Amino acid sequence: MMSPVHHQPVSPKLRKAHILAVGLALLIATVTLISMEYASLRRNMTVTMQIQMRIMAGNIAQALVRGEHEVASEVLASLAEAPEIDTAVLYDMQQNRFAEYVRPGSLSRLFDMMVADQVQRHSDMHKSEIWQPVVYGGMQVGMLYMRSNMKGLYRQLLWYVGTTVMVMLVTLFAAALLLSRLQRAMLKAEERAGFLANYDTVTDLPNRHAFSRHFHLLLEGARHRRGVLALLVFDLDDFKVINDTLGHDVGDKLLHLVAQRLMVAAGKKNTVYRVGGDEFAMMLDQPADVENVEAVANRFIRALAPPIVLNDRNFYIGVSIGASIYPYDGEDAAHLLRDADAAMYYAKSRGKNNFQMFSAEMHHKSSTRLLLETELRVALEEKQFELYYQPQFSLPDCKLVGVEALIRWHHPQRGLLCPSSFIPVAEETGLIVRIGEWVLREACRQAMEWKALGVPLRMSVNLSGRQFRQENLVQTMTKIIERTGMDSSLLELEITETVLMEDAEATTTRLADLKAMGMHLAIDDFGTGYSSMAYLKRFPVSRLKIDRSFIRDIPNDPDDVAITTATIQMAHSLKLEVVAEGVETKAQLQFLREQGSDMVQGYLFSRPVSAREMAELVITGKGHQENDFILEQ
Question: What's the chain's average pLDDT?
Answer without folding.
Answer: 83
